Amino acid sequence: MKKPPIVWCVGGSDSSAHAGLQADLRTGQDLSCHVQTIVTCVTAQNSKVVQSVEAVSVTMFDAQWQTLLDDVPPDAIKVSLLPSLALVEACSVWLQRIRKNHPRVSIVFDPVMAASSESGNRLQQSSVGAALLANLLPWVDVITPNAMEFTALTGLSLDDSLGPPLKAIQQTLFAEGVCPHALWLLKGGHDDSEQATDWLLGRTSITGFRTQRLTVHNTRGTGCTLSTALASFMAHGYELLDALTMAKAYITGALKTGVKIGEGAGPLGRPGWPLQIENLPEIVSSDGDSLGTGVAFEQVDEQKLGLYPVVDSVEWLALVLEQGVQIAQLRIKDPDDPELEDKITQAICLGEQFDAQVFINDHWPQAVALGAYGVHLGQEDLEEADLALIQKAGLLLGISTHGYYEIARGQSICPSYIALGHIFPTQTKQMPSQPQGLKRLEHYATLLHEHFPTVAIGGINAERFPLVAQTGVNSVAVVTAITQSAEPEAAIRELMAAFDRAKGVER
Ligand SMILES: Cc1ncc(COP(=O)(O)OP(=O)(O)O)c(N)n1
Ligand SMILES: Cc1ncsc1CCOP(=O)(O)O
Question: Domain Thiamine phosphate synthase/TenI spans what residues (predicted)?
Fold first, then answer.
């Protein structure tokens, strides 16, 4: 069996196992990671009270780091409860070493100060708070305080009722010399508004992850679970925004499946890999707006999906439609093409002639003006385009996505289909992200199944085509598998047949 990603969790033992390292172990296991632990303290607690906390010695703390490091380095580290100043300082030294010798290790810092059980819940010496930022922030990728921890750490308030003064907070956090690069995830789970928004603040970006507030009782270990899920997804190689979107979906599933154990609040459930679309957060800008217009786009006709050629000329479009494909795209990348409107007009006519769903890439104003069937837009285009206008004009809208975050962002638009790319390395386009591979594609197809038609794209040749079709996607887009084939007509017919075979369709 393949070695699972390794996550080191640095924190305290919780005798009730509702939170702390025990919750971290269950989370990592649930997400196919191997969690190794660096124990900072032993606590005697149950669902109601923290009875006592006993820190380990710095010698013991150092020995755990060294012993693990002598064997195999981690893929990600989650640091949580550090009960004493001596352990904060020791941890800072280890993180600095890790940063220097293993720069690819992701580091998440969840600044736990108290347990959320009902009383007697302090876990950390009160003198420690101020030292945390100075010692740990330089080495971490993301810090995940709740509102109370945020105030304790920074003296700033995150009071939703006043309207989050996010830009002012951002300026203070990223002021010269205060905090060089770590992102802040300011968790909004602790007030009582109808929706809960976690805000991710970078030096120049503010992104909200919004969910409906769940009225559930068994919420112990929420912070531990979120931060360990985040570290686990990063250990699997997901980018931070994708990992955070997944961690949010995971925590929503975990809150829905919590269990009552003991007299106080019980622990969260462990819902497995996030594959339920209803658990995805809504992605909002600093104003609290999502990309959606509030009205769904008409979806493509699933009977007319399958092979989806993406071509750069009217001649190619005619050729693919003549072979019987029922969805295709005209992708002209030169905005100054003097014949652009002519070409779009011809593409629209060809679509009508062959009763096919022809999408126009990028050029939405012309597509709207000329009455196209649909437009295909990338994520950056979505910010600029007038989506309400496209919708009012009756066009369909296909969108590109490259991972969980963009899927969550794009689903608020309720598009006609969601494209998932790039699956394999491609020579056709310079991609800023890594190829996603078949496993992730299969997950996205499951996540979106019965909600949005899906299209896979990127590096899909004749050999890979059946494997892609078998993941459950509704359509497979290709460029060079057709345009660089010695016999394009035969290649198209073979790809169409391969799609039908993969789906068990007989024609
Ligand atoms: C079906 C399909 N999926 C993805 C893309 C890529 O679109 P976009 O992100 O807008 O990039 P460009 O095509 O503009 O380079 C696509 N065209 N079609
Ligand atoms: C336009 C585009 N968007 C993501 S990958 C890609 C190119 C796909 O081309 P090919 O099928 O030749 O890899």
Answer: 312-482
